[in-house]
Amino acid sequence: MEALISSPFTHPPPWSINVSSSIRIHVKKKITANINSLPKHTTPLTCQVIITTQHDQIKKNNYFKKKPVLAIIFNAFDRFISTFLDPSPLRPSLDPEHVLSGHYAPVEELPPTACEVMGGGGPLPRCLDGAYIRNGPNPRLIPNGPYHLYDGDGMLHVLRISHGKPTTFCSRHVYTHKHAVEGEAGYPFVPSPFASCNGGVAASMARLMLILARIVAGKFDPLNQGFGTANTSVALFRGIGIFALCESDLPYRVKVTEEGDIATLGRHYFHESNKPFLNMTAHPKTDQETGEAFAYRYNVSPPYLSFFRIGSDGRKQKDVHIYSIKKCTMIHDFGVTKNFAIFPDSQIVVNPLWVLGGRSPVGIDSSKIQRIGFIPRYATDESEMWWIESPGLNVLHCVNAWEEDGGATIVVVATNASKVEKIFESFHSSELRMEKITINVNAKTVERNLLSTTFLELGAVNPAYAAKKNRYVYAAIIGSKALIGMVKIDLSLANEDGRDCIVASHLYGPGCCGSEPSFVPREPDNPTAEEDDGYLITYLHDENNGESKFLVMDAKSDALDVIFAVKLPRRIPFGFHGLFVSETDLEKV
């Protein structure tokens, strides 16, 4: 945490003092401070130092903020539910004291702050000029009741690089409707499908009634303004914008400013004004050649799946409703090839009626037979869609997909949750492994090859090979509590004998937690460049010394060598998906 001197500043001043990972010092009264340690514009303060934990102080600050009378009443009822109706103790995966600890502890916003390459190295490769943006859950307000890792408000951590030099780093929340109404109430009340209804029948029904009361009172407007966190991923639609996404809401458009800050521009409808839609996937697929984006949304009522396209002009096209899915499936990701969109129909389902039984509406249907569905990507209806059963395949992320043999073969590289029933407890316990899945289009058969026995997630490829046959995949290694390293996989080694296809790996060391890798080609405009000629970039936090870094790794090296490291001005928590946006693309959006 940090030691902060109370002041009128919105963000922690640059002269904040780091003291430890669990303590924050807050100034309450005046004592004389050393004027030589303060910026010129700062007047000396006098203070009385009181030590509290970060979570206690945040809760205290939120409680004593001036609030409307209705907010005070609603918040009191919510605290009653958390105190008397929720089970005690909470399961570890739903206990905020457990979930929001260590690498996962939230941080406050940070304005653009200077940073530099460690050890005086540099300059960074010029292909890295632009911005690296990573999204992840970071609750603005610490919850009193059940909380799941997926619930936190989206926070974007942005490193700006210019002329081979890292210039600034900043962290900003995505200013969603949830962020606004909870800020006004001073209380985290927006419901979560993963946590809010896990406390039994009484707690679940009480929370639903309280949410309805807030809606009727005009304090929350989920139907018109959404309720999502925008905490999952970042997407670039070239010439249109940069978006922060989660699958329970529409994307929020954001912009990197000239000062290196990142601003929320608003919830984005893609010009769909006649029949505005409510949500879309956090993993749209863009075609670099046509400028189109392909996306979908799943629904809790028929049609349970709707597929659509966003044109190069940024306008959403007509929905293709898919009725051959017979119940709401939580399809987190999908694949797109030159001619097809590919949908995994897993055992992860959504059933709103489960709430009546005091359980989360999101869960596992172990009786369901998993399938993979294929539909032409320019289809106007689902008449040409076909499905193949694929028992045991519960896909979480599709890394890449392409066609071979003139379209007679489709290949998908994806992560599969071997123990899908554990998927909402932790990544590690769900045993995520990466597979190469080969589909014979004519025979309608599936062949699966395990690429490694190592638990892997958050895979990436050279973006020039998206929807095209590629050889190399890069992925994060899943440890028991953190992402502990990175690997390089050679898909050409995949075969029926189960050979491990990892050809390079890099472990961060004890106490370190990494992030999703992103691949940046060394010569992005050179069509003859080798596929792995480039750099892997990611964020890393080291609990041993409290430092966070931006790493640049050589993708061609045998050990994925770190060739540059940028020390970040403060800790960066665990997050989900990131995106590198080049200087050229930044100028166009």
Describe this entry's structure for a reader.
It contains seven helices and 37 strands. It is globular. Helix content is 11%, strand content 34%. Mean pLDDT is 89; it is low at 1-64. The protein has 589 residues and is mainly beta. Strands 6, 32, 33, 34, 35 and 36 form a six-stranded antiparallel beta sheet that branches. Strands 5-9-8-7-37 form a five-stranded antiparallel beta sheet. The two termini are 35 Å apart.
Features:
mainly beta; disordered N terminus
Summarize the structure.
The protein is mostly beta strands and about 600 residues long. The protein is globular, with a radius of gyration of 24 Å.
Largest sheet: 6 strands, antiparallel
Describe the global form: globular
Radius of gyration: 24 Å
Tally of helical segments: 7
- Which bin fits the share of residues in helices? 10-25%
- N-to-C span: 35 Å
Q: Which secondary structure elements does this structure contain, and how are they paired or packed?
A:
Blueprint: E1 2-4, E2 17-18, E3 24-27, E4 49-52, H1 54-64, H2 69-85, H3 96-99, E5 110-114, E6 116-117, E7 130-137, E8 154-162, E9 165-173, H4 177-185, H5 201-216, H6 222-225, E10 233-237, E11 241-245, E12 252-256, E13 262-267, E14 285-286, E15 293-298, E16 305-310, E17 320-322, E18 335-336, E19 340-345, E20 348-350, E21 362-364, E22 371-376, E23 386-389, E24 395-404, E25 409-417, E26 432-440, E27 445-450, E28 456-460, E29 472-478, E30 483-490, E31 502-507, E32 512-513, E33 518-521, E34 534-542, E35 547-554, E36 562-567, E37 578-582, H7 583-588
Parallel strand pairs: 1-3
Antiparallel strand pairs: 1-2, 3-4, 5-9, 6-36, 7-8, 7-37, 8-9, 10-11, 11-12, 12-13, 14-15, 15-16, 16-17, 18-19, 19-22, 20-21, 22-23, 24-25, 25-26, 26-27, 28-29, 29-30, 30-31, 32-34, 33-34, 34-35, 35-36
Helix pairs in contact: 2-5
